[in-house]
Specification:
mainly alpha, single chain, 9 helices, about 70% helix, Glycerol uptake facilitator protein
Length: about 230
């Protein structure tokens, strides 16, 4: 239960911090943080939680990460479902808090609410194929970073920095394409509140990250320097 509570709190923070920066601060008149600020917000949420709860639960905060670590031989399959449930519930709770805050402004309209999308719902109008490829490749690289930075042969104490900056870089690349998911829990949490098109397109942001993560787990097992 301590591990699940840590995953719940960590994923809540990821959604509230990352999506919150997109909804509340990205386009603020003349002072908005823009894409770069949002990218750093997501990276900082993961970095801060890595040091806050990493020693409790491993700080997955993402069903794709849990699945990728399992594929890479780093995570017990018996813990997969409880972790994924805790992550999804934490994400939805973070989105609910964000909704309460955002709706406190007069004239509030939910709009995109930082949901992920492709086609007309992609920030840059990118196609389904472009979005699918982006989410697979970005999640693949994210898991390679995680598996490498947390390997027993990696420098100690720096994993959280590498993973946080890795997620920042991923967002800098892919926000214009899909609003960046690489995390089914983050996508589900926003789609629950947006409904409609966000729910219809949600399948891509579950399937593509899972494919990318599992591929990374299998590949890293082959290139890993030695068994841990």
């Amino acid at each position: 239960m301590k591990k699940l509570a840590a995953e719940f709190i960590g994923t809540l923070w990821l959604v509230l911090g990352g999506c919150g920066s997109a909804v509340l601060a990205a386009a603020y008149p003349e002072l908005g943080i823009g894409f770069v600020g949002v990218a750093f917000a997501f990276g900082l949420t993961v970095m801060t939680m890595a040091y806050a709860v990493g020693h409790v639960s491993g700080c997955h905060l993402n069903p794709a990460v849990s699945l990728g670590l399992w594929a890479g031989g780093r995570f017990d399959k018996k813990e997969l479902l409880p972790y994924i449930i805790a992550q999804i519930l934490g994400g939805i709770t973070g989105a609910a808090i964000l909704f309460v805050i955002a709706s406190g402004k007069p004239g509030f309209e939910i709009g995109g609410f930082a949901a992920n999308g492709y086609g007309e719902h992609s920030p840059g109008g990118y196609s389904l194929l472009a979005a699918f490829a982006t989410e697979i490749v970005m999640t693949f690289m994210f898991l390679i970073i995680i598996l490498g930075a947390t390997h027993s042969k990696a420098p100690k104490g720096f994993a959280g920095i590498a993973i946080g900056l890795g997620l920042t870089l991923i967002h800098l690349i892919s926000i214009p394409v899909t609003n960046t998911s690489v995390n089914p829990a983050r996508s589900i949490s926003q789609a629950v509140f947006v409904g409609g098109w966000a729910v219809e397109q949600l399948w891509l942001f579950i399937v593509a990250p899972v494919i990318g993560a599992i591929l990374a787990g299998l590949v890293y097992k082959m290139i890993s320097p030695e068994k841990e």
